[in-house]
Amino acid sequence: MESYKEVGRSVKRVDAYDKVTGRAMFTDDLCPKPCLVAKILHSTIGNGRVVSIDTDEAKKVPGVVGVFTCFDVPDFAYPVAGHPWYADSAAAKRDIADRRLLDDRVRIYGDNIAAVVAEDNVAAERALRLIHVEYEEYPVVYDARESMKGTEVPVQEGKPDNVVAHTLAVTPKEKLGEMGYESVEDALLDPKYHHFAIKTFTGEQSQAHIEVCVSYCYEEGGKIVCVSSTQIPHICRRIIGQALGIPWGSVRVIKPYIGGGFGTKQDIHFEPLNAWLCHQVGGRCVKLELSREECFWDTSGRQPKNFEVEASVGDDMRLHARSIKGWSNTGGYIHHGHALVLNSVNSFRWLYHTCEDAVRCEAWTIHTNGPHTGAMRAYGVPEGVWTAECLMGDIAHDMGWDGVEFRLKNAIAPGYVDEFSPSNTISYRTDGLRACVERGKEIIDWDNKRREYANQAGPIRHGVGVAFMVYKTAVAPFALETSNAQITLNQDGTFQLQMGATEIGQGADTVFCQMAAEAIGVDTEDIHIVSFQDTDVAPYDPGAYASRQTFVSGTACKDAGTKMRKRILELAERLYPDAQGELDLRNHAIYDGGDNRLCGLADLALEAYYNIHKTDQLSTRGQATVHQNAIATGCTFCDLTVDIPLGQVTIDKIVSIQDDGRLINPKLVEQQIHGGMAQGIGFGLSEELLVDPKSGRVRNATLLDYKIPTMMDVPDLIAENVETQDPMGPYGNKAVGETPIISPAPAIRDAILNATGVKFYEMPMTPQRLFEGFKREGLI
């Protein structure tokens, strides 16, 4: 494996001191005070149309500056999802524009129909209560498969059956013919093989980030300036321009430190409305901050999904054929739409794959009157892996096979290329999965625990389980992957690094500094990074999503650093024409071909800035357009205790081992895995937005009722890595930001199956669902 000096160091986070001391400035910290505040009036029906809105009394409230309704806003539709844009107009249409700033067509409970701008929160809240709305109400449908049958009034115009998209991918007939079959269904039902079929469900998980969604807008220099807690400042600028029907250059977006996003803030929900309201009140500063409740039901959680899967398997443990059908409930708006369930069914295909395996994948995305859904950490993959692992766990259990051995017989192997991906650009080049599994088995004491937990009885039982995971890095080849970075040599010989990519708490700024330092040949401590983005200044980058930044933005960062090193040595050659041999930059100084130190880097920088004959202030721009992809893999092992009468699970030990390629900063990777494991435990056992199917209203939109794991629920988390050197990563690295959330939940499920013999297919496995399952199987 290639040796590096700065890459691979567990250096301290560059933002650590500011964050732990409270010096870091977040959006609300920067907002001028006092300023105007905006509040939104949400619909109190789940489906229908606004007939009229009476705002007369609201306008009389002291302190109210303006009241605006769905009948006042410009008729521009815009997309919410933070997807890259395309020069190709046909490709750009994939970004479906189905939102307006305020809308008289109510598609979900809590839709935005009016807004108040006031001098303070009290005046705004009073005004909201005095707005009177008359509705024309339609029946609410929340079940996705029921919605596919069509509704009296389609949820979205142009979709009479409420189906956003439908896709089908099947093993080619040529290969099926070689196997001796006409169809995948024939292969599934071949009597020479064992046949399995299950149905699974995954609920809507909320990101529950600590900082609520907040922005403030003002006008300056002929531009609308929006300061926002967003993961995607450059895309935010473009969407504000689309929503207001103004040139994108007339918008400036600034992203300060951000207090968590996990995908919610990859959507542009309220910045366009805030920008428009600011313009309506003469460019005065307007802050729009969501309440915690609004963050739950008026931003985008994980899509609820249903799956039906089948498999046939031989006595040799080899999968023979598989089928998956997925139905995804996108709610009233498309947002990220079909891409999410595609990730689900694709991950089902990738994780387990053999040459003899025939596969059929079908997926639908459907509109309902359910709440907003969109991107959340790992973008549909946890749902697909949950389903794959439920299937694999059932097969191993019913056949009496060791779950690890069975999975390894069929797991993705080096050389795998996704035959359905455009230009075959998704491939598995470096394999650490098998080493991850061996290490996980050792830590959890798999073989001994399986023997120890066999043939249990009584109300308290123990189990050990396993789940594998797979995840592609970035969004290529399905969408544009591009990035830019800027490096400037400072007068003291240090460097200023500016990225369009965004730090959202994951440690991106730190690893960018390490990558730049490695490329230049200096210490990480010599790199100063601008930890916020300003679209008027920062180089272009789509932002933080898809575990793309270290992979794609890191490539641009490395390019800028490589160019800077070249520029420095070229300047040194000009300044020292009599130097012997090839010049080198090391130890913060310039050396000739031997060990003769010509000058310090700081001296060279001063010459670059202030040489009386010729100045040459050094600045380089790095650029990356990435077309290839890399697959990360790993596994989770879980040891737990089940209290059957209480339906209670206590996790005694849980370990995740991953192959994320080369680690840029091992300590940050460990922190990422810990955070993802905690979210995965929540997804598996407790986290689900509960929706009233009759009204579409979210029932548990508070941190009291939406159960995220606390320090009392999360055990000591064990995280390790098996390093590989992937040829596609700028320094051999692959995805790490989203991978850790994928496999904890199915590993917990597998351990419950091992402990009790009871199979669960709905996630989260809440105490109520566990109790019902144990009762159904006669354990209670």
TrEMBL record:
<feature type="domain" description="Aldehyde oxidase/xanthine dehydrogenase a/b hammerhead">
    <location>
        <begin position="21"/>
        <end position="139"/>
    </location>
</feature>
<dbReference type="InterPro" id="IPR000674">
    <property type="entry name" value="Ald_Oxase/Xan_DH_a/b"/>
</dbReference>
<dbReference type="InterPro" id="IPR046867">
    <property type="entry name" value="AldOxase/xan_DH_MoCoBD2"/>
</dbReference>
<dbReference type="Pfam" id="PF20256">
    <property type="entry name" value="MoCoBD_2"/>
</dbReference>
<dbReference type="InterPro" id="IPR016208">
    <property type="entry name" value="Ald_Oxase/xanthine_DH-like"/>
</dbReference>
<dbReference type="Pfam" id="PF01315">
    <property type="entry name" value="Ald_Xan_dh_C"/>
</dbReference>
<dbReference type="GO" id="GO:0005506">
    <property type="term" value="F:iron ion binding"/>
</dbReference>
<protein>
    <submittedName>
        <fullName>Xanthine dehydrogenase molybdenum-binding subunit</fullName>
    </submittedName>
</protein>
<keyword id="KW-0560">Oxidoreductase</keyword>
<dbReference type="InterPro" id="IPR050028">
    <property type="entry name" value="XdhA_XDHase"/>
</dbReference>
<dbReference type="InterPro" id="IPR037165">
    <property type="entry name" value="AldOxase/xan_DH_Mopterin-bd_sf"/>
</dbReference>
<dbReference type="GO" id="GO:0002197">
    <property type="term" value="C:xanthine dehydrogenase complex"/>
</dbReference>
<keyword id="KW-0500">Molybdenum</keyword>
<dbReference type="InterPro" id="IPR008274">
    <property type="entry name" value="AldOxase/xan_DH_MoCoBD1"/>
</dbReference>
<dbReference type="GO" id="GO:0004854">
    <property type="term" value="F:xanthine dehydrogenase activity"/>
</dbReference>
<dbReference type="Pfam" id="PF02738">
    <property type="entry name" value="MoCoBD_1"/>
</dbReference>
<dbReference type="InterPro" id="IPR036856">
    <property type="entry name" value="Ald_Oxase/Xan_DH_a/b_sf"/>
</dbReference>
